[in-house]
Amino acid sequence: MSTARMLTGDRPTGRLHLGHYVGSIANRVRLHQRYESFFIIADLHMLTTRNGRQDIEGVADNAREMVTDVLAAGVDPARATFYLQSAIPEVGDLNTLFQNLVTVPRLERVPSLKEMARDSGKEEMPYGLLGYPVLQAADILCVKGEVVPVGKDNAAHVEVTREIARRFNHLYGEVFPVPELIPSETPTLVGTDGRAKMSKSLGNAISLSDDPATVRRKVMGMYTDPNRVRADVPGTVEGNPVFAYHDVFNPDRDRVAELKRRYRAGRVGDVEVKEELAATLNRFLDPIRERRARFEADRGLVDQLIVEGTERTRAEVRKTLVEVRRAMGLSSAYTQVRRRAERYRKRAETAA
Fold it and tell me: What is the catalytic activity of this protein (predicted)?
């Protein structure tokens, strides 16, 4: 395993889905054997769009579910450090220092922020959401992350991190690596409704933890070609989410090509294509379900992993913050004041 570090993670808003898998988790599974890997449970990021009391009260349960999903997907717990973002207050200190290294117009050019605000039903951009990429930079650089596997939505955020790292190093000396972005092979997976990316909040997702019957029900209700009223009517494959999923998850490329030919010619019905997709997805999810069941049976293991990982990460972040403050000269400012105060106190005691 390389000594280089990887940082990745998710917001604890519920169980992970197939969109998460193709967007970043597949990369994590592949890469975590090569890098020292930190997995953030980004509950502070969650607050930018979901900050009600009920949302916050659900963090612990959602964190457990999220970590279990990642482990079930194939991440080895012995090679991963899971940590809860809000339990490391030093990340907030680093975020504060980084805020001065990026401008508001630069952040306003990050396209996904407006999408996040819109999807969460916010008419105006909260200050915390505008600063989302800055906090993300603090997350990545606090452990000196060098590799960041991300989906399409977060690519622009990581570019802000790269800019902040370069800016800091230019001003104060070489402290941070400039992290490398590793995109997924399938940047975005359309939702089952065919209208947007797969999202828990939009109700168009197939979860990694869904049972076979649930997967089949969701697949059978998927959006297809609205102009195709009968099986003998030629259908459109392009933009059809059923075939988009076949392209990603069905390993039998010849069979997928055959289904597409028959669909375009009006010689196969939506039911048959969907039935085959449901079977394909369940075959893909079966080993994930089996691993999830094993981790769920070992009660308390996931909690222990989070606690141990958080304590270890906090120790690393504290070291980074000391280095940052020293490079910026902040450490010496209070030291100078304190020394003068100490001399003043001694003079006052002598005079008395």
Answer: tRNA(Trp) + L-tryptophan + ATP = L-tryptophyl-tRNA(Trp) + AMP + diphosphate + H(+)
How many C-beta neighbours within 10 Å does residue 128 have? Answer: 15
d(CA 302, CA 224): 39
Q: How far apart are CA 158 and CA 15, in angstroms?
A: 24
30 part of a folded domain: yes
Strand order in the sheet with 147-150: 80-84, 36-41, 5-10, 147-150, 180-183
Instruction: Provide the annotated binding site for L-tryptophan.
Output: 139
**How many structural domains compose the chain?**
2
Q: Count other C-beta atoms under 10 Å from residue 152's C-beta.
A: 15
Q: Is residue 202 part of a domain?
A: no
Token pair of 106, please? Answer: 């630069």
Whether residues 327 and 278 fall in one domain: no
Q: In Å, how far from its chain's centre is CA 272?
A: 34
- Going from the first residue of the chain to its last (352 residues), give the mean pLDDT of each consecutive group of 10, the final group possibly shorter: 84 92 89 95 93 94 96 96 98 96 94 80 85 96 93 82 98 97 79 84 90 97 88 90 95 95 94 96 98 94 98 98 95 88 90 78
Q: What string of DSSP letters covers 179-202?
A: PEEEE-SS---B-TTSSSB--TTT
Tokens 């590799």, located at residue: 147
Backbone angles phi, psi at 42, to 5 degrees: -90, 70
Give the domain CATH number at 268. Answer: 1.10.240.10
**Contacts with 322 (C-beta within 8 Å, 6 or more apart), sequence order:** 331
Binding residues for ATP: 11-13, 19-20, 151-153, 189, 197-201
What confidence score (pLDDT) does residue 200 get? 76
Annotated binding site: 11-13, 19-20, 139, 151-153, 189, 197-201
Q: Does 172 lie in the same domain as 32?
A: yes
Residue 230 CB neighbour total at 10 angstroms: 9
Q: Is this prediction's pTM over 0.85?
A: yes
Find the CATH number of the domain harbouring 28: 3.40.50.620
| Residues 213 and 159: beta-carbon distance below 8 Å | no
User: Domain residues for 138?
Assistant: 5-190+299-336
* 134 token code pair: 């800055």
